[in-house]
Every structure is written in C-alpha cells, then in structure tokens.
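Notebook p. 47: complex prediction with S-adenosyl-L-homocysteine.
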Amino acid sequence: MEEINKKDIRLLNKEALQDFFASHGAPSFKGGQVYQWLWQKGVHNFDLMTNLSLEHRNILKTYFEIKHINIDTQQRSSDGTIKNAVKLHDQLVVESVLIPTASRTTACVSSQVGCSLDCVFCATAALKRMRNLNADEIYDQVVAIDHQSKLYHNRPLSNIVFMGMGEPLMNYKNVIAAIDKITHPEGLAMSPRRITLSTSGIPKMIKKMADDNVKFRLAVSLHSARQEVREKIMPFAQKFDLKDLIDSLVYWNEYSKKKITFEYIVWEGINDQKEDIQALVALCNRIPSKVNIIQYNTIDGSLMKQAQQSVIDDYITALTRARVKVTYRRSRGLDIDAACGQLANKLDIKGTVT
Ligand code: SAH
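Predicted complex, structure tokens below:
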C-alpha cells in the first residue's frame, strides 16, 4: 500500500472528525467520541480509545498521528511546586509549573519558546523567541498539570496563569484558541474567571482583547509607572509608550469592569525613590487596580538587586493609604528555579535542559 502522509489529528475540529468517519462508511458520532478522547480526556494513544472498535482505531492509525507534548523532566520543590520541562514535537523545550497553595492549584503555562521581548531582569529574554506555541501545545500543558494536581494533591487544577515563558499577546491567536478549549464544556470546562493573562503591556492588543469580548483576567507587568524607568528595564517599552498603555488599560477597564493586577518588582537604584512610589499610587488612583509586589528572583549573570525591605514597606504603606489593595508574596519553587522569570535558568540556548 502506498505510504500515507499522516496528519496531526488534533488539527481537526469535531465536525471534521465526524465527516472523516462518515466518509469511511462509519457512523459520524464516532468522530464526537474521538474528539472527547482527545480534548476532554487528554488521551495520546488511539489504543486507549476503548469505545472504538479495533477496525476504527486502525483506520485512525492509518491516516493520523497524535502530535503531543511530552513531560521530559519533572522537578519537585520542597514546597510542593512542580516544574516541568515540556518537550515539543520538534524537540524544543518550554517549561510549565504547578503551584499548590492551601486552597488552590495554579498552572503557570508558557506561550512561546523563548520570548520576543527583552526585559533585562528576565531569564527567558536571553533565549530570544524561537517560535510560538500552537494552541494544542498550550492546552496540553494545562491538561498535564491538571493530571499532576489530581495525582499529587487529590484535586483538579483551579487556576491558570499565563506567566511562563513568552509574551502571550505576541501569540494572541493561539493563546485565545487554547483558552477557548480550556473553557469549553467539551474541553476542560474551566471558568475564564480563573484564568489570568499576564502581559508586559502591548496597548493595541489589550484594546483588541476588550473588542474581542474575552472573559479572563488581566495582569500587567508594570514594574514602573514612569516611562523613562520602564524603558531602561523593559527596552521594548520605547515602542509602547506608557501613555498608550494607560489608555489601553482605561479602555479595558471600561469593558471588563474588573480590577487589573499590576505586577511590580522593587529594585535597588532603579525604582526605589519616593517619586517611583508616587507615580505608582497616581496610576492606581486612575485605573481600578491592585498591586502584586513580586519578589525579585536573581537570574544567572544579572547584577540587579531587590530593594531593601524598608522600601517595599514604603510602597505598601503608600498604596494602602491610597486604598489600593497590595499583596507581597514570597516566591514559590525557588530551590528548583521555578519562580517567575527564572524558568530559563539552566536551559541552554537551544532550549534543551542541561
Ligand atoms: N511576558 C509576560 C508573561 C511572562 S513573565 C509578562 O511580562 O507579563 C511573568 C511574570 O514574571 C512577569 O510579571 C514578569 O515581569 C515576572 N518576572 C520576570 N523576571 C522575573 C524575575 N527575575 N523575578 C521575578 N519576577 C520576574
């Protein structure tokens, strides 16, 4: 028999799967069953699709393959955090993290291999962008972490944050398609309110999210409310002026009516002055928001240092006085380099784990 060039079955939607069965003289509802195996149960092997006859499984095997991610290595922190090195079908590697707390389990997922942006404090920036993840590769990370949550913590995943490698708004189409599947009743049926997209701040795309009527939450890696400071630590901000970012956030707030979370690290000699604090308070007064002060996690080869605790306390006092909610949490998973911005530590430039 002539060799058939096998197609990735996961590129077919439910209707296409139904049509496939019908065109092979089989009942079309079989396509719906396959869809369920692929997307609700996360099965990666045709032989595990037990409500299909051997004959139907063989037809599938003749025409298709299931291109899926593989968890290459799994590191477990003493605090329960799990960091997964995820190998893609082309051998590139991204990372995703399971973060358990008393009340929730959060998946931190990647959206790109490497990153298009150049934040000077982030280990992923050193990798440059190699490619975007497709929607299935994003979805698969969530399914894998959901399995781990059930296995190690006896509960399903409760939250998802797009805070792994990459800039989700630079891979918008695939991120949205993945979220559609995560929230769809025939996918994982998770509430979009439990999903947070974290962006370094791309004004045009933030407006687009509002126009597209998305339902998830928004976090912005602000790190400074002053254009000149932001440009130093996030050089791409030269192209995306803070004024435009603020405009887009006002637009988003009018649409979503939900508070935006500003992620903020305080560094010595960078944003540790009174005027930095005042600028942040002024911005929070303008935009319904809360502030999440993130502990700075040192990355290989960087000279940046987190500011003294007294400066962080000054930020907290000023924000609290202005009735802005502020949280400051210690990082999780530090012993395995699983914390924010550290994911690419110990990865060599080709994206393979060393
Ligand atoms: N590109 C997106 C999502 C990935 S980064 C974004 O910028 O939001 C996820 C979060 O980790 C961001 O808030 C980012 O600013 C933060 N981060 C990056 N490097 C860090 C580091 N070394 N220590 C602590 N947080 C860091």
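Notes: The pocket of S-adenosyl-L-homocysteine is lined by residues 121-122, 163, 167, 198-200, 221, 263, 265, 294, 296-297, 299, 340-342 (CB under 6 Å). The CA atoms of residues 106 and 159 lie 5 Å apart.
Next step: compare against the earlier run before touching the bench.
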